[in-house]
Specification:
With about 250 residues, the chain is of the alpha+beta class. The protein is about 20% helix and about 30% strand. The protein is elongated.
Length: about 250
């Protein structure tokens, strides 16, 4: 029995068509829905969600990811093998952070004899490819090896005032996940507001802003029992500066 995870921006009923195609070709499958509410065409958010979850699945898992603003264009369809896992989706960087976190990816163009629609490659290309993997095929059986497109979350940088970073994701609690892997060495402020250094949300007072390392391994800015996104007026993609000067009360 094979595990196939699904991550898309499809919303409600489109994922069912993808699953139906897979089940018509590979019956012994367990589906795990990572998310189908990724913001439309938001490849970066999809990549972060896949990166944050793929590592917890066993070797042999097939990860089907479709956030594909280039559907129907000349962008490639790819299958990747990395660290014993398999990834299927568009060649737009969506799959690569997760694939690289598990090992050294080897990517192959999906060049199957299919007749896809121009708007639903998730159903017409990626689902058949995932079914092939579930029934014993390898990515190399689908086409020649290629160099896939990369996606980077960027890196924080030092500034005269402190550290400049980027918000790469905002979760449903309003926590601001940044592209920092290590917390600042000392006290910092965001937009002039002091952030409490904490290991847990509860170490801050109610509605007190804090900075911590989240379960995903990235530094996040939160508000205990509140929304940091609302408090600071920030969203995914925004750049922030954490000021290290004048941090005393």
């Amino acid at each position: 029995m094979k595990i196939i995870t699904l991550l898309t921006d499809f919303g409600s009923f489109y994922p069912a068509a993808v699953k139906g195609v897979i089940l018509s070709k590979a019956q012994d499958v367990v589906f795990v829905d990572i998310a189908h509410d990724i913001p439309p065409q938001d490849v970066r958010t999809g990549a972060f969600a896949l990166l944050s979850t793929a590592r917890y699945f066993p070797s042999g898992t097939i990860h089907l990811g479709v956030v594909d603003p280039g559907v129907g264009s000349e962008r490639l369809s790819i299958a990747i093998e990395s660290g014993g896992h398999f990834f299927v989706g568009p060649d737009n960087g969506l799959l690569m952070p997760a694939a690289r976190s598990l090992g050294t990816p080897r990517a192959y163009k999906i060049a199957l004899d299919l007749h896809p629609s121009s708007t639903f490659h998730g159903r017409d290309i990626f689902a058949p490819a995932a079914a092939m993997l579930a029934t014993g095929s390898k990515p190399r059986d689908m086409g020649h090896e290629i160099r896939p497109k990369e996606l980077s979350f960027g890196a924080p940088r030092r500034t005269k005032k402190g550290i400049e970073a980027a918000v790469i994701y905002v979760d449903r609690f309003g926590n601001l996940i940044t592209n920092m892997r290590k917390p600042p060495p000392g006290q910092v402020r965001l937009k002039g507001i002091k952030l409490k250094i904490a290991e847990t949300y509860s170490q801050a007072r109610r509605i007190e802003p804090l900075i911590t390392v989240g379960s995903h391994g990235f530094v996040e800015i939160a508000v205990n029992k509140g929304s940091a996104a609302e408090a600071f007026g920030l969203k995914a993609g925004d750049r922030i500066e954490l000021e290290e000067r004048h941090c005393s009360e």
